[in-house]
Structures are given as C-alpha cells and as structure tokens.
Automatic annotation (TrEMBL):
Membrane topology: Peripheral membrane protein
Gene3D superfamilies reported in the protein's UniProt record: Glycolipid transfer protein
InterPro entries listed in its UniProt record: GLTP_sf, Glycolipid_transfer_prot_dom
Keywords from the UniProt entry: Cell membrane, Cytoplasm, Endosome, Golgi apparatus, Lipid transport, Lipid-binding, Membrane, Nucleus, Transport
Recorded coiled-coil stretches: none
GO MF annotation terms: ceramide 1-phosphate binding; ceramide 1-phosphate transfer activity
Principal location: membrane
UniProt gene name: cptp
Signal peptide: none
Species: Oryzias latipes
Entry protein name: Ceramide-1-phosphate transfer protein
Catalytic activity: N-(hexadecanoyl)-sphing-4-enine-1-phosphate(in) = N-(hexadecanoyl)-sphing-4-enine-1-phosphate(out); N-(9Z-octadecenoyl)-sphing-4-enine-1-phosphate(in) = N-(9Z-octadecenoyl)-sphing-4-enine-1-phosphate(out)
UniProt record, GO biological process: ceramide transport; intermembrane lipid transfer; negative regulation of interleukin-1 beta production
Annotated ranges, domain Glycolipid transfer protein: 33-180
Gene Ontology, cellular component aspect: cytosol; endosome membrane; Golgi apparatus; nuclear outer membrane; plasma membrane
Amino acid sequence: MAGPAASENQNFCFKEELDAFKLSLSPTKEVILEHYLAGWSGLVKFLNRLGNVFGFISKDASSKIQILRNFLNGESGSEYFTVQSMVKYELENKLVDLKKAGSHPESGCRTLLRLHRALRWLELFLERLRTSQEDGKTSAMCAESYNESLAQFHPWVVRKAAGLAFCMLPGRLAFFEVMNVGTPDQVVAMLGEALPVVTEVYQITQELYAKHDLLDIP
Ligand SMILES: CCCCCCCCCCCCC/C=C/[C@@H](O)[C@H](COP(=O)(O)O)NC(=O)CCCCCCCCCCCCCCC
C-alpha cells in the first residue's frame, strides 16, 4: 500500500491526535467529552489514511462520535460537559435503556460505552506496537488486541470482517510512517508517553461505568 503524499502528511500527526485524550482529563479527573471526542476523531482520521477497507469501522466510529456531538451541541449540552455529568444526567432523567433496547436506543451512555470498549483495544494495540520488534506484524498485533478486548462484544460476522480488514494493515515501518511522528525511535518514545494517558482515561471511565452498573447496556 502506498503511503500518503508528503503534502497530506503535513496535516496529520498522530501525537497531536492523542494529545486530545490528555486534554480530556480535567484537574479533578473527570473526562471532558469534547476532547474525548476530538481524540476519537483524530483516530478516525488516521484510520481513513490507512485505506478504504477500514471504511466500515471508521463509519461506525464516526456515527457514534456524531451522536455524542449532537448531545453536546443540543439543548441539554451543558449536562454533557463531562462523561461523569452525562452519566448523572441521563440516569437521573431515565434516558438510558439499561437492560433491553427500548425508547432510548442511542443514549449518550450506551454510545460512549461502545467507544470506551474500543479504547481498551487501542490501549492493548499501542502497547504491542510500542514493544514490537522491527519485524513485528501490525496485523497480528491488531488481531491479538482485538481478540482480547472488543471481539467479545461483536457478533461473528463483525469479527470476521474485522479479521479480514486487519490483514490489510501495512507493515510496522509503513504504519509508523502513516503516523507521521518521526523516526521509529521517536514513535516508540511518543507511544510511551501517550499510553499512560489512554490507560488513565480508560480506567476512570471503566470505574464510573462499573459503579453505576452500566457496563452491559444493550
Ligand atoms: C489500525 C487498525 C484499526 C482497526 C480497528 C480495530 C477495531 C475493530 C473494530 C471493528 C468494528 C466493526 C464495525 C462495527 C461495529 C459495531 O457493530 C460495534 C457495536 O456497535 P452497536 O452496538 O451500535 O451495533 N461498534 C463498536 O464496537 C465501536 C467500534 C469503534 C471502533 C473504532 C476504531 C477506531 C480505530 C482507530 C485506529 C487508530 C489506530 C491507531 C494506531 C496507532
């Protein structure tokens, strides 16, 4: 697969995309939705640069980002400032279908849970990338991370399609180039700095969802 043109590369740097997750952590360790979504948009942008075979994944992620942005820009937008305030607001106002799909099939809590589960995949994948050898296979790293996380929530047909798409991932070096961060050493260093942030955002959200028994929203 040919890499993106140099001019295109100037508009993209993986580090900046991940920085949005850093910004999403408030001083009181709440997760600011706007920045969280900006982080996801950056990842989707990256995914789109990898080629059309990932289109079905980036479409699903984009539509979930959009659902949440609509809440944020809607009339109750201020309630959606952080993930914590969103959970409180939606639960207090009975805006979440907790056990089975009903009148709120696209609640903020439910939609964010899907992205949250994918964040665990990201964490596992970035850690594998960071510690990979020069001849490491991104497709295998991606598949292993997926099988350990997101796959359990997906039906067979989605798992199958995802597995096929992973085979189309470029090799480690070409993948690093698409990230546009610098030399492989610089990429590895950047990942070392970025990962703890991803982990922290994941853990805070995980604890919040567990506390409110929201981890299985249909
Ligand atoms: C680099 C390769 C990227 C591979 C992406 C790995 C994740 C694979 C996810 C496969 C999702 C398939 C699409 C369909 C999903 C939905 O069925 C399913 C359930 O939704 P529903 O309850 O509304 O029906 N949706 C989801 O689980 C949410 C998936 C969100 C995936 C976001 C993936 C963004 C990937 C960003 C790549 C960034 C890589 C950066 C590496 C340096």
